[in-house]
Amino acid sequence: MALKLYFHPLASFCQKALIALYENDTQFEPHIVNLADETESAELKKIWPIGKFPVLRDEARDWTIPESTIIIEYLAQHYPGKAQLIPADADLARQTRFRDRFFDLYVHDPMQKVVGDRLRPPTGKDPLGVEQAKARIETAYGMIDQEMATRTWAMGDTFSMADCAAAPALFYANLVLPFGDRHTNTARYFDRLMKRPSFARVVEEAKPYFHMFPK
Ligand SMILES: N[C@@H](CCC(=O)N[C@@H](CS)C(=O)NCC(=O)O)C(=O)O
Questions:
Q1: Whose C-alpha lies nearest to ligand 1, atom 12?
Q2: What would the pLDDT profile of 82-114 be if each residue is shown by its tens digit?
Q3: Ligand 1 midpoint to CA 112 (Å)
Q4: Which residues line ligand 1 (CB under 6 A)?
Q5: 165-187: average pLDDT
Q6: CA–CA separation, 16 vs 85, rounded Å?
Q7: Contact, 44 vs 53, CB < 8 A?
């Protein structure tokens, strides 16, 4: 098989890439990496020294593609399918990329900060950093709530790369900072994302690993 994805089903950025693959039924060889295992982590670092995943390997073109957004861009370019996750129109494509960046930088990354702090030893905690991360997520929720008052998906009527970014980011962010009843449009958007077959499958496949999520 030409495509091989290095990933873990519980890892949120990996889920973002999986949604894109599932949206288009793109065939790939799944390669689950346990980062806690030194050999597996070293194997990943051989192809991407940063050591983060997802990483896509395309044997047919001899390309190694790290970074969830770039993986989705690559799939859209070389393995297009029925779901056009990046619009052909240049202005719409730019707006899609902006929303993808928004979810990654202002929901996903701060969510990782909060979760990552739970894994730190008691002497290495960063309460101020966690507080700032939660404040950033709260601001982002408010902005998402305004936008989603009139939209089905992040870009409007069509599911896009921005929704691939939003789904896992909101899934885990809601666990560390629940939408509550302050952000009802965000909560309704999240319900739609949960029902989207590609993301429902991702969540189903992550369930066996949920016990590993730090409470
Ligand atoms: N910007 C990267 C972020 C990837 C990322 O943070 N992946 C996490 C899993 S969700 C990871 O590899 N964490 C392990 C580590 O930081 O060492 C992307 O979009 O793919």
A1: 52
A2: 999 999 999 999 999 999 999 999 999 999 999
A3: 9
A4: 11-14, 35, 51-54, 67-69
A5: 96
A6: 12
A7: yes
Three-state SS across the chain? CCEEEEECCCCHHHHHHHHHHHHCCCCCEEEECCCCCHHHHHHHHHHCCCCCCCEEEECCCCEEEECHHHHHHHHHHHCCCCCCCCCCCHHHHHHHHHHHHHHHHHHHHHHHHHHHHHCCCHHHCCHHHHHHHHHHHHHHHHHHHHHCCCCCECCECCCCHHHHHHHHHHHHHHHHCCCCCCCHHHHHHHHHHHHCHHHHHHHHHHHHHHHHCCC
What's residue 53's pLDDT?
Answer: 98
pTM score, whole prediction: 0.98
| Average predicted confidence (pLDDT) for the chain | 97
